[in-house]
Amino acid sequence: MAPDRLVVIADPIDPSAADALRAGPCRVVDASQAPADLVRHLGEAWGLIVRSRTKVTAEMIARAPKLKLVARAGVGVDNIDLAAAGSRGIAVVNAPAAAATSVAELTVALYLLLVRGLWGSIVSTRAGRWERGAHGHELAGRTVGFVGYGRIAREVARRIVPFGARPIAYDPFVARTGDSTELVALDALLASSDIVSLHAALTAENHHLIDAGAFARLRPGAYLVNVARGALVDEAALLAALRSGRLAGAALDVFETEPPTSRELLEDPRVVPTPHVGALTEEGQRRAGAEIVGEVLKALRGEPLATSVAPAGGSR
Length: 316
Ligand code: MLT
What we know:
Elements: E1 6-9, H1 15-22, E2 27-30, H2 35-41, E3 45-50, H3 58-62, E4 69-72, H4 82-87, E5 91-94, H5 100-115, H6 118-126, E6 143-147, H7 151-160, E7 166-170, E8 182-183, H8 186-192, E9 195-198, H9 212-217, E10 222-226, H10 235-244, E11 247-252, H11 263-267, E12 271-273, H12 282-300
Parallel strand pairs: 1-2, 1-3, 3-4, 4-5, 6-7, 6-9, 7-8, 9-10, 10-11, 11-12
Bound molecules: D-malate.
D-malate (MLT) binds at residues 51-52, 74-76, 99, 278-279.
């Protein structure tokens, strides 16, 4: 035990998790409300707890000579320089399962909003119009193509099969799905999906995976749902695909820059934007906080870590 080790909470975590940490064998500084506190305490930090706001860059790591553990209260670790952490022997842990249900439920909600054209109905009804012409489709019978078939996509598939939708998936890291989802090549997925649903972890290799070329290979009138990372999609190409009619609509919980800077994209009537809320249910955040603090406490006690992150890619 070394109660002098300092754990800095850089981004807000569930209060019950912060309390559990304070009861552990460490000192705790909560810098989540004042980033200046993070800068002040970085030199002493043994552990760092982040969500997605704090960017754990090589430069930040260099200013933290005592740092041994970075704990990400969530799934994506694209805000952490894994190579820089690895070269210093700093362990990185995350909470990959904590919010899978939350993100999966949001994803299904977005499918229904898109295919039924509900977004347009809500906006026009609120504006005082009463537009009751037939529009939209059923989710039943639609092919949903998952790009990335990890925990979240599997949870989505489990929920949409009872709706009568047909799930297919492209994932270079998965050899067999173990469920009814059929694995296909990316081109086949783009050509046959009514909804292309993004669930890949962002890596250097899949940056702008969905670019102008990919949009050109889409089934005309398809929808795009992105609840993973904004930079998987080339936003200029997305806007062009919407305007050309190739893409019938897009639901975006994530953007290349957050908050997003493209008013054109946000204001396009075919775009359903949400502010990266997929994981932000009370339940999801409670689980993420508890899991990540559990890992920090294990590391403080010298016990093996359950969710050490390897510096490779994968699905969410
Ligand atoms: C995650 O990676 O855990 C989610 O996208 C939520 C987040 O980044 O904060």
